[in-house]
């Protein structure tokens, strides 16, 4: 008997009991669809975190004034009363750290912007001309300020989309002059829309000015709260972190046992930690969903054992007219694999539909994983073979004479 004929007989046997076959496949369908949906949720969450971190900037490090733990007292970085970071420090980082490509100081303040009879309370961030490239943030209209405007502390401003929408609805803000604490600032550019940061803050509700202008004309202070540093590559961020720490400790004359009076944070490190957390959660969700695949496999074994009992006389007749034990075993194995694979294919379709509906109904991002689909097919076949082998072996081991006597 050829393998093709054995497959035809196996399919014919399954078609005779359509409802029983469908109910048997249900466990596999639910298991496969659940695995695909759970992995899609995990992959979507990971992609969302990566997108949010990428929106902050690539190869990015933050250098903050103040340490997170000084003298046993925990304190935030970049605080107003902490003046341990200077423009000269940042110049030294730019000159002496070979793994760093760009550096910009950042001086923040919150104030009221006034244009005509309109006003808007927002954050003004003082940076240098390298800020857009460091943050991978393009200027949509106009241009960013230049190095000359930074050195001369020019009163120029680049605004975010939220500010443009509220102060200049329907008009072009480029070239307009607004007041910042009674000082006129000319708008030279409008940033492209950025959206929310990982903390949920509106990044477009920010205006940018030369840090020298913010220091001298708004704050009246030379302090630097934080600096954005771009490494030459993502792999170089950890080297840059170590080298920046070494340079600043030398400049601040810190002894071997003295704690840092600054903080260097690596966005790559944060991204890797977030990815590791998401991977663990994805594996956990997929493992929980896989339990239903195990249950479905047990259901297949149960039904195949019932099928062997019901068809004992048929097996005896086939063996009496010359069918080999291997052919009988193969037939029942094929029936088991067909059940599991058919359930697996249906489960894949259901999983894809669920993965598509989740963002529409719940707003959760999903990303369908090709390895999860391939793995589901392979696992379904493995379930069919594993749980179908014992019933197939039992059928092949029947004695033809005893089988023919079976009622």
Could you characterize what this model shows?
The protein has 407 residues and is an alpha+beta fold. Helix 9 crosses helix 11 (325-361). The strands form two sheets. The chain has a six-stranded mixed β-barrel with strand order 4-5-10-7-9-8. It has 13 helices and twelve strands. The chain has two domains: 3-52 and 273-405, no CATH class; 85-260, no CATH class. It is 56% helix and 18% strand.
In a nutshell, what does this entry contain?
The protein has helices at about 5-15, 20-55, 85-95, 130-135, 145-150, 160-165, 210-220, 235-250, 265-310, 310-320, 325-360, 370-395, 400-405, and strands at about 60-65, 70, 75, 100-115, 120-125, 140, 155-160, 175-180, 185-190, 205-210, 225-230, 260-265. By secondary structure, the chain is an alpha+beta fold. The model is unreliable at about 70-80 (pLDDT under 50).
Q: What is the helical fraction, as a range of percent?
A: 55-70%
Poorly predicted tracts of residues: 69-81
| Overall 3D form | elongated
Quaternary structure of the protein: single chain
Number of strands: 12
Cα-to-Cα separation, first versus last residue = 26 Å
Q: Can you summarize the main beta sheet? A: 6 strands, mixed, barrel
Mean pLDDT: 82
User: How many structural units, i.e. domains?
Assistant: 2
Task: Give the H and E element order.
Answer: HHEEEHEEHEHEHEEEHEHEHHHHH
Trace the largest sheet across and list its strands. Answer: 4-5-10-7-9-8
Number of helices: 13
Strand content: 15-25%
Which structural category fits the helices and strands?
Answer: alpha+beta
